[in-house]
Amino acid sequence: MSFTPNEIALLLVALLAGLVLGLMMSGRGKYKRLWREEQSAHHHAIRDRDARLNAANERIAELERQSTPIGPGTATAVAGGVQGRDDLSRINGISQTQEVALNEAGYHRYGQIAALNGEQEATLEARLGLKPGTIAHEDWRGQAHDLERGEKPGLLSRLTGQA
Length: 163
What we know:
Helices cover 68% and strands 0% of the residues.
């Protein structure tokens, strides 16, 4: 198979055009350089994020070392430490979580619990997630009244029905 001079010239022109287009599109390593720059920026961002996380974790550890633990009984301690609040968890049927919810609702004293009316009881039962009638059944008002007067009802007096 032999080529004519015209075919050889066309092949050389096509080869030259391909070479020129290839050099133009390559950008002389431009895309490789951009990829390396983006990769470097990504690594710097990760290092910065890790440094911020480590600093935050160190700050959290420092604050935890300085503070007292939060756990059961903390609401009672806070309520006892603040003037004008009674330990509502002394009323049978009120857990410490419910005491916090009662404090958030504005009930801080035994007298406030003793003075509840039926509508307020229903509202509190809904807020605390209790069955309707629970407050009356557990006699929160009576217990609060006794605690307000300074009487601490004992287990035997509750079982026998005596105050």
